[in-house]
Amino acid sequence: MPMYFIIPFKDYNDLLKKYKGKEKDLLEELDTNISYALSFMSGQLFAIRTSMIGEDTKRWAKAGEYISLTDVDRESIPIVVTKIFNAIDPNHNLESGSVIIQEMIHGDISGVTFTVNPIDNNNMIIEFSMGGAENVTSGSLTPYSIEITKEGLILYDENLIQLNNQNEFREMINSISNSTNNYRIFKEIESLMRDPQDIEWTIKNE
C-alpha cells in the first residue's frame, strides 16, 4: 500500500467559505497543510484522484467518470488539487467524498480485478498487463486475464500460458494466480464494501 493522505470535500468547502474571493490566501493555507502531510512521505511523484461514495454499486460502475492524474510532482499538488475540486460537478454530494493524494508507484505488472464478472455475475476476473494499470483501464491494449471460480479453479487465457514460459514474469504471474490468497483478499474487500468491486492494483518487484 503506497503512502497517502486525503482532503475531504467538506474541509475544502470550509476553506472556500473562509477565503471567499481570496484565492491566493486559500492556496497558501492549502499549501501549508499539504506540505505538512508530505513531510511524512518520501515520494517525489504522486497520483491524485477523487473518491466518491457510491462510485460503484450493483447497478452501475462509474470508473473513469472522475478525475485521476498521475506523475504529479510535489510542488504542483496544491494547484492540481484546486483544479480538481473546481472541476467537480456541483450536483454531486460534496459532503461524502474526498481527494486522495498517494505516492506514485510505477509497477512492473498492474491490472484490475472484478470480484464478480460484470457480464455473467459469476467468476472473479483478474485482468492485467506489464507496466502501469492505465494500460488496462484505458483500453489501449487487450489485457491478459485469469478467472477464479468460487471453487478456486483457475482459468488462464492462451496468451497468458505463453507468457508464463518466460522466466522473468513467471514469479509475478504465480503470485497473481495464488487463488486461495487473492480470492480471499478481494472477497474481503467486496464484503467490506457490501457490493461487487472493481479493484485497481499494481505490483513492484523490488
Describe the structure.
There is one protein chain. The two termini are 14 Å apart. The mean pLDDT is 79. Strand 7 (144-148) and strand 8 (154-156) form a beta hairpin. It is elongated, with a radius of gyration of 19 Å. It has seven helices and nine strands, in the order E-H-H-E-E-H-E-E-E-H-E-E-H-H-H-E. It is of the alpha+beta class. It has a five-stranded antiparallel β-sheet with strand order 8-7-6-5-9.
From the structure above, extract its key features.
five-stranded antiparallel beta sheet; 9 strands; 206 residues; alpha+beta; 35% helix
Strand line-up across the major sheet? 8-7-6-5-9
Gross morphology is: elongated
- Mean pLDDT across the residues is 79
Secondary-structure-based class equals alpha+beta
Number of strands: 9
Oligomer: single chain
- Unreliable spans are none
β-strand percent reads 25-35%
SSE blueprint and pairings:
Blueprint: E1 4-8, H1 9-18, H2 23-38, E2 45-52, E3 68-73, H3 77-87, E4 97-103, E5 109-114, E6 124-130, H4 134-137, E7 144-148, E8 154-156, H5 158-163, H6 167-176, H7 179-193, E9 198-203
Antiparallel strand pairs: 1-4, 2-3, 2-4, 5-6, 5-9, 6-7, 7-8
